Amino acid sequence: MADLKLPRIPDRTPVKFTISILPDLHQAIVEYAVLYSETYGKEEPVTELIPAMLEAFLEGDRVFAKRRNGLMSG
Q: Rounded distance, CA 51 to CA 15, Å?
């Protein structure tokens, strides 16, 4: 097989994940969506923002990233 610069593209099939949140958290997320819209001049549905928020949270957690990288490489 040829050595390509582009690695194999990972599975991008969305996974539906349903959660229940408390009203205060819901309100905070709605307010965040408003601030996002004001900041970037584009409205995004909360359902699009939440996955991005979770991804940013996980990427920013250095302890988790270190542990995850250790598990993946060994």
A: 11
